[in-house]
Design goal:
The N and C termini lie far apart (about 30 Å). The chain has one helix at about 60-84; strands at about 5-15, 20-25, 30-35, 45-50, 50-55. Helix content is about 30%, strand content about 45%. The protein is elongated, with a radius of gyration of 15 Å. A hairpin with a 2-residue loop joins strand 1 and strand 2.
Length: about 80
């Protein structure tokens, strides 16, 4: 099973001949390869797996996924508090 995380493209760069983008994942900024999604533009939301963009997605889907990840993180934190 694979897990892809949505992020928003901030800017583009070329590193060692590879087209990359600086991507915001809800506050965590990472440089990822966007070789497989040449249609991506600044401000687009993309799905990223293992440092590689797989697809451009719509903003609503991206925000729903990010909200779900945030909710799961809160549940995990709450469970840890109960386990102490």
């Amino acid at each position: 099973m694979c897990l892809s995380i949505p992020g928003r493209i901030i800017s583009f760069h070329t590193l060692e001949g590879v087209k990359t983008a600086e991507v915001d994942f809800g506050g965590a900024i990472r440089n990822i390869s966007i070789e497989w999604v040449p249609e991506a533009k600044q401000g687009d939301y993309i799905l990223v797996h293992v440092g590689t963009a797989l697809a451009v997605i719509d903003e609503e889907s991206a925000k729903e996924s990010l909200a779900a990840f945030k909710y799961l993180n809160k549940l995990t934190e709450d469970q840890r508090k109960l386990d102490l």
